Amino acid sequence: xxxxxxxxxxxxxxxxxxxxxxxxxxxxxxxxxxxxxxxxxxxxxxxxxxxxxxxxxxxxxxxxxxxxxxxxxxxxxxxxxxxxxxxxxxxxxxxxxxxxxxxxxxxxxxxxxxxxxxxxxxxxxxxxxxxxxxxxxxxxxxxxxxxxxxxxxxxxxxxxxxxxxxxxxxxxxxxxxxxxxxxxxxxxxxxxxxxxxxxxxxxxxxxxxxxxxxxxxxxxxxxxxxxxxxxxxxxxxxxxxxxxxxxxxxxxxxxxxxxxxxxxxxxxxxxxxxxxxxxxxxxxxxxxxxxxxxxxxxxxxxxxxxxxxxxxxxxxxxxxxxx
Length: 323
Fold this sequence. Notes:
The chain has 12 helices and no strands. By secondary structure, it is mostly helical.
């Protein structure tokens, strides 16, 4: 079977794929726990000892049981509902991989960064692939349980971007304005929201010479990436975006939503709790509002980007010949 035919027939095999992926990933976690090296199996990338690997083995073993039940309970809603927490579990294991393109950019590579753990990096990539498999399996099962076509959901493709999608694009853009403005202001010499010593927004110890040169000229590379993220959100929700390649837009959209939504929610929560005095996590160099508003804006961006990407995917899909 060719790759094109394999991808076109994904609803017919994705549940089995999720099953075998879960079995193999759980087995790998058990081997890592028994032999010592983590190989990236520790949840959230933390090296917390064999307990984390055994926990991962148990959780992914339970996921394999659920995957076994998916095609055998096609008329029940609970298997697909339980599948979405498995997607979240896979993303927690592969979260760092979603941000890896940023870390691999030469301009962001600092002098004193720790060496790349390639085994963990590959493992995180496999975990992200598992999240995709499980998400597709959950979608197929839900469609079948509702009596719809597993390929397209039994709905006509939308033409144009609905008003809610256009709004999502604008919300995504607005969510990154505080971060972009603040980082650019810091690069231009302002210190608003910065309470530490040195230069806000850049650490010469961990920033490359290229990054420092750009910063000295008023350009913060992360602000440039934020502008790129704004452009992506607009491309997904505006007519001119339909002339761009579909697959890269979908890949960037889903990867950005999956990485930034939980990351932003975490930062927004930490910043808000610190701002109100409920906790003290030692944010000595930043005012609490910076973390809650500027950095926490990634949560709104990630959620809005997910909405925009989903609408774009529905509106640009090909006609289904299986209904």
